[in-house]
Design a protein that fits this description.
Layout (H helix, E strand, L loop, with lengths): L1 H17 L1 H4 L7 H4 L7 H15 L2 E7 L4 H12 L1 H10 E7 L7 H4 L10 E5 L5 E6 L12 H11 L4 H10 L1
Parallel strand pairs: 1-2
Antiparallel strand pairs: 1-3, 3-4
């Protein structure tokens, strides 16, 4: 257990040295990663996210939700209050926020994904756009009704790009 923790700390430390911008509290993110915006075109944003993910060798985390969504807001507050988790998330993934609201439900984009039953909902895709995971974010909530740092960090570790071959094999077997 101690050896695994040392490997994780060394990996995180060396990856922050490789990506010093991500080690800072403020990360320079594309507009499609910053907020749910009903005026954005999700197809254009997805293409841009694929280009960025390919250049930076990251997977894409597609976050479906809206500014009206209380749980979306709680998730954002959690990530803001936990910059280490937020940095790890953005280091491992290109975040693509897709708005769903009464003004723009982005139906045409969402019909290309597995069904969403609640918000926020996340998908993990490869840097080529192949969806590997559909996940309800309630699984990140602990017994106190708060987001769990441990659950987030384990998720990030499991679904980052370095795990693609293992995750794609797992999906093919299901």
């Amino acid at each position: 257990m101690l050896k695994m923790l040392q490997v994780i700390l060394i990996t995180l430390g060396s990856s922050l040295a490789i990506h010093p911008v991500l080690a800072q509290e403020k990360i320079n993110l594309p507009a499609y990663s910053q907020a749910y915006d009903e005026s954005r075109n999700p197809f254009d944003d997805a293409r841009a996210a694929i280009v960025l993910a390919s250049k930076t060798q990251r997977n894409i985390l597609i976050e479906i939700g809206g500014n009206w969504c209380v749980w979306c807001q709680k998730m954002e507050v959690f990530l803001t209050k936990n910059p280490d988790v937020n940095n790890a998330l953005h280091q491992a993934f290109v975040l693509l926020k897709i708005n769903v609201s009464e003004h723009n439900d982005n139906h045409d984009f969402l019909k290309s994904l597995p069904p969403v039953v609640g918000y926020p909902h996340i998908f993990v895709s490869t840097n080529t756009g192949k969806v590997m995971l559909s996940k309800e974010t309630g699984e990140f909530i602990d017994e106190n009704g708060e987001h769990s740092r441990n659950a987030w960090l384990m998720f990030i570790e499991k679904w980052q790009m370095s795990q693609n071959s293992e995750n794609l094999t797992r999906i093919s077997a299901e």
